[in-house]
Design a protein that fits this description.
The protein is α/β, with parallel strands linked by helices. It has a single domain, classed as Flavin prenyltransferase-like (Rossmann fold, 3-Layer(aba) Sandwich), CATH 3.40.50.1950. It has six helices and six strands, in the order E-H-E-H-E-E-H-H-E-H-E-H. Helix 1 crosses helix 6 and helix 3 packs across helix 5. It is globular. The model has no long low-confidence stretch (mean pLDDT 94).
């Protein structure tokens, strides 16, 4: 069985709960995962603390500072196969779309794109301007997958957790794992 090397980036867009739930759910796949690296933008740390009133501590993953361009995720030779930016701010999307690698998150995304690996972006913004849409299109054209934080309702979610899981489970499926989430028509 091939084990996966995963990067999770958390930026300053509202929606830190999506990242928290993803990290929690990935613990169910540790036999299929070799490494998980987590990196927060500075605003991502602040939003996480504000929205969740908690601090993320390393358990089965490592946390890198966004200024650490010497971390393994800054190089294609480290061979990470998936990066999820959840939630992803429009500023981060703009930097990635325009090749501005001025921090670890944008550099790691640049590496994932150039290595033709799996980049998943979960933007949490509304409304979207034409600038946002153009930047998202650039990333999509480069091979990135855009999964907006727009939960679905066809499974009739009864709780906020169930609603959040409609996005997190879709991300897990697109990472190449089987989330077990109920699919349309089931």
């Amino acid at each position: 069985m091939k084990t996966r090397k995963i990067i999770i980036a958390i930026t300053g867009a509202s929606g830190s709960i999506y990242a928290k739930k993803l990290i929690e759910k990935l613990e169910n796949y540790t036999q299929e995962i070799k490494n998980i690296e987590v990196v927060f933008s500075e605003a991502g740390k602040q939003v996480w603390n504000y929205e969740l009133n908690s601090k993320l501590t390393e358990t089965y993953f490592r946390i890198y500072e966004n200024t650490n361009l010497f971390s393994p995720i800054a190089s294609g030779s480290a061979k990470y196969d998936t990066m999820v930016i959840i939630p992803c701010s429009m500023g981060t999307i703009g930097r990635i779309a325009n090749g501005i690698s001025n921090d670890l998150i944008s550099r790691a995304a640049d590496v994932i794109i150039k290595e033709r690996q799996n980049l998943i972006i979960v933007p949490r913004e509304t409304p979207l301007s034409s600038i946002h849409l153009n930047n998202l299109k650039i990333i999509s054209d480069a091979g990135g997958l855009i999964i907006p934080a727009s939960p679905s309702f066809y499974n009739k979610p009864q709780t906020i957790d169930e609603l959040l899981n409609t996005i997190v489970d879709k991300v897990i499926d697109k990472m190449g794992f089987v989330s077990g989430a109920k699919q349309w028509g089931e």
